Write a sequence for this structure.
C-alpha cells in the first residue's frame, strides 16, 4: 500500500512538472486567437513571416538529405567492414561514437574553417549543413544500424547472393537493406528528430533552419514563435513516440 | 560453423590484392569523417596552441584560460551542470524507482519510459520558449501566481541566470536519468531482499547495506553522464540568455561571433579544448563506474 501511494505521489508531482510547460505553451499561443489559423494558412504565413517558412522548408530538406547521406555512408560501410575488414570495425565504431564526447558547440569551433572552404566551393546554402548534421547523428544512427546488422547473418546472406551472381551493389541494396528495414527506419527517425531540433551549428555558421527561425521570431512576435515551437515539438514527440513504442513492441514479440 | 563460413569459396582475388581493393570500399566513409569530424577536432586542438598570426606554437591561449572571466565561466558551467545533474539524478532515480514498483509490462511503465525517451531529447530553443511561456515575465504560471499575490520575481528575474538555467535543464535531466538508471534498478533481484529479510534484516539495513552499495556505482555513473549532458548543452542557454556569457558555451559563442574585434580567434579554441577535456574526464570516470556496475547489475 505504501508503495502504491509513493508511486502515485511521485508520478503525479512529476506529471505536473512535465505537463505544465506544455499547457503553458498552449495557453500562451492561444492568447491571440489569430495565431493558430495563421499557422495553417501557408501562403499567408509565408508572406507575413518569410523567414519562418524559409526555415521550415530548410529544416525539412535538411532532415531528408541528412537521412539519405547518413544511410548512403553508413550502411555500405558497416556491411563492408563486417564482411571484409573485421579488423577495422573498432576504428569505425570509435569514429562513429566520437561525436558523443565532442559537444556541438566545440564541433562548431572546428567546423568554422572547414565551412569557409565549403562556402568557397559549394556556396552558403543552408543545405550544406547536411554534412555537419550527418556527423552529429553518426553515433545514434550507427548504433541502430549496427544492432540491425548484428541481428541477421550478413555473411551468409551476402555469400548466397554473391554465389548467385549478384554484384556488391545488389547485395547491399536488395539483399541486406530489406533485412535491416526496421533498424534503418529507426536510424532515419532519430536523424529526422535530431535535425529538426538542431540549433547550435546552424545559428553559429549563419545558416537558417527551423530553430534559428523560431529564435529569430521570438524577438518580435512571441505568440507565433511559441505556437511554432509547440507544433515542432508535437511533431518530434509523435516521431519519437512511434519509434520507442515500435521498439518496445518488437522486443515484446521477441521474448 | 563460423570456420566453415570463413573458408567458403569467394569469387574474388587472392588475399594480398584483396586487402587493398577491400579498403577502397571504405574510402567514402573515412574521407567524409576525416573532413567533417577529424579535421575539426584537430583544428580545435592545434588552434588552442597556435598564435593568432596562424603560425607558431604558443601557450598564450591556454594561459588565457586562467583569466578571471573565463575561470568564472567555467566555474558557473560546472556549478550549473553539477546542480542540474544532482537534482535530475535524485528526482530521476525516485521516478525510476516508482516505475520499478509498477507492473513490468504494464501500460504505465511503457508510457513513462517512452515519454522519458522523448523528453530526454527535448532541448534547445523550443525548451527555452516552453519555459518562457510558463514562467517568463508574462508566462502562464507567473501571471497566475501574481493574481494570487505571489511574485516569483519579487527579488529580481532569476530565469535568465543560473537558477533559471538549472530549472530548465532539469526538464531534460530527469528523463535522461530515468532512461539510464532504470536498467540498474531492474538488475536488483527480489531474491536478494528475500535473503536479507530471512536473515533478519530490516528495510533500513536493506537499503544501506545491500541495495545502496549495489546501486551506488550506477547512480554515480548516471549522475556523471547527466553532468556531461548539461555541460555540453548550448542551444537552451543560448535562447534564454541572448547576450553576454555566464557559462562557457556562451563565452565560446562570444569568441566566435566577435573574434575579429577581439583579435583572439584562438581563445575560443582553447575554451573549446577545455570543454572537451572536462567532458572526456567525466566520460572516462563514467565508463569506469559502468564496468563496476556491470559486475552485479549487468
Amino acid at each position: 500500500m505504501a508503495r502504491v501511494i509513493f508511486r502515485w505521489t511521485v508520478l503525479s508531482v512529476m506529471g505536473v512538472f512535465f505537463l505544465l510547460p506544455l499547457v503553458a505553451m498552449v495557453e500562451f499561443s492561444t492568447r491571440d486567437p489569430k495565431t493558430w489559423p495563421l499557422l495553417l494558412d501557408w501562403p499567408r504565413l509565408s508572406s507575413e513571416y518569410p523567414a519562418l517558412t524559409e526555415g521550415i522548408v530548410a529544416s525539412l530538406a535538411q532532415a531528408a538529405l541528412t537521412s539519405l547521406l547518413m544511410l548512403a555512408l553508413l550502411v555500405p560501410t558497416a556491411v563492408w567492414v563486417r564482411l571484409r575488414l573485421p579488423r577495422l570495425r573498432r576504428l569505425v565504431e570509435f569514429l562513429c561514437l566520437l561525436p558523443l564526447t565532442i559537444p556541438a558547440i566545440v564541433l562548431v569551433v572546428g567546423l568554422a574553417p572547414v565551412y569557409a572552404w565549403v562556402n568557397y566551393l559549394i556556396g552558403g546554402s543552408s543545405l550544406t549543413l547536411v554534412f555537419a548534421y550527418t556527423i552529429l547523428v553518426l553515433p545514434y544512427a550507427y548504433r541502430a544500424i549496427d544492432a540491425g546488422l548484428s541481428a541477421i547473418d550478413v555473411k551468409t546472406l551476402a555469400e548466397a547472393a554473391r554465389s548467385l551472381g549478384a554484384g556488391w551493389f545488389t547485395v547491399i541494396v536488395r539483399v541486406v537493406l530489406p533485412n535491416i528495414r526496421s533498424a534503418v527506419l529507426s536510424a532515419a527517425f532519430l536523424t529526422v528528430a535530431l535535425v529538426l531540433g538542431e540549433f547550435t551549428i546552424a545559428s553559429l555558421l549563419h545558416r537558417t533552419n527551423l530553430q534559428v527561425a523560431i529564435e529569430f521570431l521570438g524577438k518580435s512576435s512571441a505568440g507565433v514563435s511559441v505556437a511554432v515551437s509547440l507544433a515542432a515539438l508535437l511533431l518530434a514527440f509523435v516521431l519519437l513516440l512511434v519509434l520507442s513504442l515500435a521498439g518496445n513492441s518488437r522486443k515484446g514479440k521477441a521474448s | 560453423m563460423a570456420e566453415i563460413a570463413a573458408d567458403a569459396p569467394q569469387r574474388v582475388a587472392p588475399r594480398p590484392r584483396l586487402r587493398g581493393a577491400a579498403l577502397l570500399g571504405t574510402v567514402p566513409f573515412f574521407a567524409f569523417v576525416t573532413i567533417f569530424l577529424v579535421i575539426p577536432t584537430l583544428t580545435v586542438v592545434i588552434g588552442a596552441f597556435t598564435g593568432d598570426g596562424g603560425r607558431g606554437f604558443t601557450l598564450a591561449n591556454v594561459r588565457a584560460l586562467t583569466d578571471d572571466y573565463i575561470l568564472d565561466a567555467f566555474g558557473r558551467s560546472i556549478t550549473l551542470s553539477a546542480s542540474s545533474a544532482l537534482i535530475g539524478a535524485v528526482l530521476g532515480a525516485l521516478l525510476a524507482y516508482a516505475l520499478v514498483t509498477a507492473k513490468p509490462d504494464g501500460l504505465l511503465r511503457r508510457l513513462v519510459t517512452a515519454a522519458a525517451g522523448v523528453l530526454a531529447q527535448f532541448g534547445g530553443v523550443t525548451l527555452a520558449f516552453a519555459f518562457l511561456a510558463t514562467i517568463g515575465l508574462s508566462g502562464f504560471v507567473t501571471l497566475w501566481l501574481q493574481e494570487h499575490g505571489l511574485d516569483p520575481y519579487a527579488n529580481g528575474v532569476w530565469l535568465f541566470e543560473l537558477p533559471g538555467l538549472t530549472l530548465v535543464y532539469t526538464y531534460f535531466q530527469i528523463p535522461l536519468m530515468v532512461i539510464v538508471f532504470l536498467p540498474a534498478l531492474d538488475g536488483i533481484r527480489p531474491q536478494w531482499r528475500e535473503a536479507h529479510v530471512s536473515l533478519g534484516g530490516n528495510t533500513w539495513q536493506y537499503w544501506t547495506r545491500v541495495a545502496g552499495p549495489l546501486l551506488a556505482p550506477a547512480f554515480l555513473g548516471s549522475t556523471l553522464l547527466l553532468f556531461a549532458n548539461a555541460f555540453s548543452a548550448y542551444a537552451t542557454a543560448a535562447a534564454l540568455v541572448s547576450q553576454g556569457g555566464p557559462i562557457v558555451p556562451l563565452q565560446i559563442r562570444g569568441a566566435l561571433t566577435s573574434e575579429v574585434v577581439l583579435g583572439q580567434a584562438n581563445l575560443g579554441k582553447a575554451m573549446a579544448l577545455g570543454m572537451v577535456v572536462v567532458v572526456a574526464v567525466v566520460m572516462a570516470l563514467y565508463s569506469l563506474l559502468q564496468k563496476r556496475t556491470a559486475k552485479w547489475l549487468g
In short: Chain A touches chain B through 84 residues (CB under 8 Å). Residues 251-255 of chain A have pLDDT under 50 and may be disordered. Chain A has two domains: 1-30, 34-254.
